[in-house]
Every structure is written in structure tokens, then in C-alpha cells.
Design brief:
With 320 residues, this protein is an alpha+beta fold. The protein has 11 helices and 8 strands. The strands form 3 sheets. Strands 1-6-7 form a 3-stranded antiparallel beta sheet, with no helix packed on it. The protein has a 3-stranded antiparallel beta sheet with strand order 4-5-8. Strands 2-3 form a two-stranded antiparallel ribbon. 22% of the residues are buried.
């Protein structure tokens, strides 16, 4: 019988330490892969709630946590497991929500084998401990001498997403025909028929608590009682009152009266003068302007006025 290697048999140092749990997929994967849960037969929010459970956890050497967190290393499902998962996705895509098959009903996916896949820039040495004898061997990039691993609690449904994130740094020609990439691409192309809100799990599924497939949707504002009857909610429509049309008159009597009053006034400023009846102000002739100019030129100076006043004052004193 072949020995079964688990993820805690791998270490970054020949000195092995107790393993610790680490989540594989982050909650942001719900938005990045919106149709993945429905393609695997999950119900509403089951994909998000499963991320906090053992199906999304690896038992790793603490010194390898950072390498798996930034996808420098990943456990990629083997080709047999990917083919089985692809068949499940195609089946659920072509079936109505009530007839979809849950991934937990396929026993072979629980014992799926995974291979260690490194990033092209990752060149660290890894150490493997034999599960029976405890012998430690070293392995270098590209780690082709490492055996397949059977993860302790992690499931293919989550490991496939972690491995897909790692392919973002790979050239396209290396991953275009890859089964893993084809599954993700197929789920995204069938997003309209794989709405997560329409996915229904079989009754009494081990992944979900017992519940009925059809749930009654009731408004929060309506309290349900034992004698409550569901009646259609009819809202009273508001009456739209159309405002009366405004009649525009061509002439304004008030403006006409103002124009008549202002027409008889001649000393109005320019802003108060009516437009139609302009007030004509008499203009001085050239002779008047010339005479006024001459008077201004013949005007005595201030010195002459002072001398004249002095003579007048002297004559008044002498007369006294």
C-alpha cells in the first residue's frame, strides 16, 4: 500500500515544527467568482460561510504560510479530480436549480490528490518527511520529485480557486488549454444561468441544515401571525394634478401706464426715460457755447480780486 502524504509533511526547513491552520481562499473570492458556488451546487451564502470551516483550511508549517498566502506555492488538484469537477459544473449548468447536484455527494472529490505547484520565481528548497519512517529529503525547483498530497481537510472546491489565482503570473499559452482554467472560464461564461441566489441544495444536505427548498418571502413591515392571510399589497397611487396653463398676454397695461406718466416729464434720468416716447432736451447752440467760453476766458484772476478788495477797504477807511 502506498504511503499517503499530507500537507504537514512539507516544510521549509529540515527542522520540522507543529503545523498550524491557514485559510486558502479569502472572502473576496465571493465577488471574484460569483458563479462558482452555484456551479458546485451550493445554496445562497453557503460558499461564503464555508470559508470559515475546515474545507478552506490547510495544515502547514508556519514558515510556509507566507509562501501560500502570496501564491508562491499552491496545491493544484490532479487531472482526474479536475475532470470530475468539470463534469459536475456542466451538469449543474444544464439543470434547473432544484435538480443541481451538490459537490459533497461525489466521494472521489473528498480524497482528491494534489501536486505542489510553484511560482516561476520561487526557488527555495523544500523538505519532505516520510509519513511512516520519518526520513527527511530535500527537493529543489521545479519540485518534480515531490509526491502527490492528500490534504487533510481542504476540498477541491477551494483549492482550485487558490491554484487559479497563481496562474495569473503564468504566460497565457501555458494555461489556455489547462483544465483548471477552462473550468473557471466556463463558470464565468455561464454566469447568467448560474445565479447563486437560485441554487438549491438537496434536503438535509450534510453541508447545510435541514430546510425547505421554497421559502416564503414576507415584507419586514408586515407581521406574520397564525391567522395572517397573504394578500397582495396594493399601494394607493398618488393623483397627479396638472397645473393650469399660463396664458401669456402680448401687452402689459401696467407698462403702458408707466410710459404715459413718464412721457410728460422732461427731467428724468436716462434710466427712467421710456423707450417709445423719448424726451427731447434742447441743445445749446454754437454761439451760446462760444459766449460761455469767452466769459470763462475774461474771468479775472484771484490776485486781481485780492487787489480790488484791498483798494475798496482802503477807500472805506479814508471816507470815515
Amino acid at each position: 500500500m502506498d504511503d499517503i502524504y499530507t500537507e504537514d509533511c512539507l516544510s521549509a526547513s529540515p527542522d520540522f515544527v507543529p503545523s498550524e491552520k491557514q485559510n486558502i481562499v479569502k472572502p473576496i473570492a465571493v465577488a471574484a467568482y460569483p458563479s462558482h458556488g452555484a456551479a458546485c451546487g451550493m445554496v445562497i451564502s453557503e460558499f461564503r460561510h464555508s470559508m470559515d470551516g475546515p474545507l478552506n483550511q490547510l495544515h502547514l508549517d508556519p514558515r510556509l504560510h507566507e509562501d501560500f498566502r502570496n501564491t508562491s506555492l499552491s496545491f493544484c488538484p490532479n487531472e482526474t479530480s479536475l475532470t470530475t469537477l468539470f463534469e459536475l459544473v456542466r451538469l449543474n449548468t444544464g439543470c434547473p436549480p432544484a435538480m443541481r447536484r451538490h459537490y459533497s455527494s461525489i466521494a472521489s472529490l473528498h480524497t482528491a490528490l494534489h501536486t505542489v505547484t510553484p511560482d516561476p520565481n520561487y526557488k527555495e528548497t523544500l523538505y519532505l518527511r516520510h509519513p511512516s519512517t520519518g526520513n527527511i529529503t530535500s527537493h529543489v525547483y521545479p519540485y518534480t520529485s515531490l509526491p502527490d498530497f492528500r490534504l487533510r481537510t481542504a476540498h477541491v472546491v477551494f483549492t482550485i480557486l487558490h491554484a487559479h489565482v497563481q496562474t495569473f503570473g503564468f504566460p497565457t499559452y501555458l494555461t489556455y488549454d489547462d483544465t483548471l482554467v477552462r473550468i473557471i472560464r466556463y463558470c464565468r461564461s455561464m454566469r447568467d444561468s448560474l445565479q447563486p441566489k437560485m441554487a438549491l441544495a438537496p434536503p438535509n444536505s450534510p453541508q447545510t441544515p435541514p430546510h425547505s427548498n421554497i421559502m416564503l418571502i414576507v415584507s419586514r413591515k408586515r407581521k406574520m401571525g397564525p391567522d395572517t392571510q397573504l394578500m397582495p399589497i396594493c399601494k394607493r397611487a398618488r393623483k397627479s394634478v396638472t397645473p393650469p396653463l399660463r396664458v401669456h398676454r402680448s401687452g402689459n397695461s401696467l407698462c403702458k401706464r408707466k410710459a404715459e406718466v413718464c412721457a410728460g416729464q422732461t427731467d428724468l434720468p436716462p434710466s427712467k426715460c421710456p423707450r417709445n416716447g423719448a424726451v427731447h432736451v434742447s441743445v445749446e447752440t454754437k454761439e451760446d457755447l462760444a459766449l460761455q467760453d469767452t466769459r470763462m476766458k475774461l474771468r479775472p484772476s484771484r490776485t486781481a480780486k485780492t487787489i480790488a478788495l484791498a483798494h475798496t477797504a482802503a477807500s472805506l477807511r479814508s471816507s470815515r
